[in-house]
User: Which sequence fits this backbone?
């Protein structure tokens, strides 16, 4: 065969239908939530600050990231055809790695933006001026593309001589390396180690930013302001930690010839859950976003009534 076979969660048809249904529900939720954020941060003139500018790009990345794997997996399950061509697999690896790294990068930029806004409010407009935020977003997308190219070249430069069965619901890099019968996969290990180090650096920067934010907020005498900051920052920090830890664990753990359901669930934790939760954290918990949603979607006249 010129392609691969993706082994899903179960061989039982009823469970396959359940898996496809759950994936489609989560995909539609992510699609709706992220599209709403993109629309209102684009058209609402009150949401043109750097925070919402970065949030729009995060939503665009979330939407792209989840679209790489979930629709293909649901379609394969519903049609009872687990085949994916070699070209589709290459594209899936490229876009998956590109959007995954870009998401880590944009989350790092967003944490620095909040750090600058809370810890240096008088200098915030200078630190995050329009020119700098455009350069930051350009660097995010460019670094994602470079990462995707490096991973794709390193992954598909190895000789795949074993079975073409991939024990995953998408073309996962560790599972592809498992099919190799040559020692050229050491290049992939090197790229893995380098990217893991970069992700740890970004995650450390995010944690340090929030440590400074929390230490600054604790000094604020207003209990309401402290509660508002903690209610927004803590869920964000949790999702970032969840996304980074599960992703690094999946890429660095030894691959097995007989993967378990736990291995598949780990993949779901960093491919499906974060893009679905991010819109909830950044919109439903934000009064400005909810007001903008009512104005844009329901109309100003209805909202006033």
Assistant:
């Amino acid at each position: 065969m010129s392609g691969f076979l993706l082994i899903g969660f179960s061989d039982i048809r009823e469970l396959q239908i359940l898996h496809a249904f759950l994936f489609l529900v989560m995909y539609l939720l992510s699609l709706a939530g992220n599209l709403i954020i993109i629309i209102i941060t684009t058209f609402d003139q009150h949401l043109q600050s750097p925070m919402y500018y970065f949030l729009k790009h995060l939503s665009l990345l979330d939407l792209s990231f989840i679209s790489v794997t979930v629709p293909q997996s649901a379609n394969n399950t519903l049609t009872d055809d687990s085949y994916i061509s070699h070209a589709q697999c290459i594209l899936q690896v490229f876009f998956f790695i590109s959007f995954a790294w870009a998401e880590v990068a944009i989350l790092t930029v967003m944490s620095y933006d909040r750090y600058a806004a809370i810890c240096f409010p008088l200098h915030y407009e200078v630190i995050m001026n329009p020119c700098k935020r455009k350069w930051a977003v350009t660097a995010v997308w460019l670094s994602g593309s470079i990462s995707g190219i490096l991973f794709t070249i390193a992954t598909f430069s190895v000789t795949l001589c074993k079975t073409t069965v991939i024990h995953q619901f998408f073309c996962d890099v560790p599972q592809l390396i498992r099919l190799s019968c040559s020692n050229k996969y050491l290049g992939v290990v090197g790229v893995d180690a380098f990217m893991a180090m970069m992700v740890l650096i970004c995650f450390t920067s995010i944690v340090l930013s929030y440590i400074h934010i929390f230490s600054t907020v604790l000094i604020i005498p207003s209990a309401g302001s402290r509660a508002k900051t903690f209610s927004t920052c803590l869920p964000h920090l949790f999702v970032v930690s969840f996304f980074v830890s599960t992703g690094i664990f999946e890429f660095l753990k030894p691959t097995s010839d007989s993967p378990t359901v736990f291995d598949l669930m780990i993949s779901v934790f960093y491919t499906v859950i974060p893009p679905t939760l991010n819109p909830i954290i950044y919109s439903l918990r934000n009064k400005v976003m909810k007001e903008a949603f009512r104005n844009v979607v329901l109309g100003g006249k209805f909202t006033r009534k």
In short: Confidence is low (pLDDT under 50) at residues 301-305. Residues 107 and 240 are 8 Å apart (CA to CA). The longest strand covers residues 3-6.
